[in-house]
Amino acid sequence: MKNISNGMNLSIQNLSKRFGEVAVLHDINLEIQKGEFIAIVGKSGCGKSTLLRLIAGLEQPSAGNLQANGKEVKGYNEQTRVLFQEPRLLPWKKVIENVRICSVDKEEETAFEALQAVKLGDKRNKWPRVLSGGQKQRVSLARALAADPNLLLLDEPLGALDALTRIEMQNLIEQLWFEKAFTAILVTHDVSEAVALADRVLLIEEGRIEMDIEIPLARPRPRDNDFIYFEKKILDRVMGREESIKSEQRDVEYSI
Fold first, then answer.
1. In CATH, what number is assigned to the domain containing residue 6?
2. Residue 147 lies inside a defined structural domain of this protein
3. pLDDT per residue over 190-206, tens digit each?
4. Per the structure, how many domains does the chain have?
5. Neighbours of 166 (CB within 10 A)
6. Res. 250: pLDDT tops 90
7. Residue 7 sits in which domain range?
8. Would you say residue 176 lies in a domain?
């Protein structure tokens, strides 16, 4: 049984965000429980990354209310960490120092434990420039873990990785989420990734949550008929039913 005592509850009520005259999010209402893994999908420009930044406290809402563990979010919360698409490592600091500067106690031992958790303990004294893209992203993940967060926000962190490295990172994130018991929110364009990792998948269209679907599949999740059912259900809505049919027709033509 997964221990969820370290997670964070989120309550979002009538949340809206405007940039000047442009309305990006409209009346978002959402409840997230401690220890849940939520994935947010949608086309580019739909507002999913803006919602993540609001939850992180990096942006302020134009209207509505956002609470974390019963307290209004008014700025960046020390119990929250964000993993971006770019690792954002400091090139003039070695791997262990990149992790240590964000650790909960600033101790090298804590940073090393986080590196071991992402299977990079042997890279502690390396410079970021000698690491592969996947290794850099794992260091970034270790840096987030070293802060012992209650909430981990993932803004398309695997988008620039090759397919095999991406699968490895998905498995690692799922393992650490289960072990550390934080709440996780992932923004991704990859519906398959969302179904593989999330307890619930949210679809945002034109700044509104248009789908909130539970994924009641056992973990780990093989790509079986049940998996494909949920993937297709979400894709049909993301692409529009007509576009999805055309895509299936093309796949059949290519396979002939």
1. 3.40.50.300
2. no
3. 999 999 999 999 999 99
4. 1
5. 18
6. no
7. 1-78+193-238
8. no
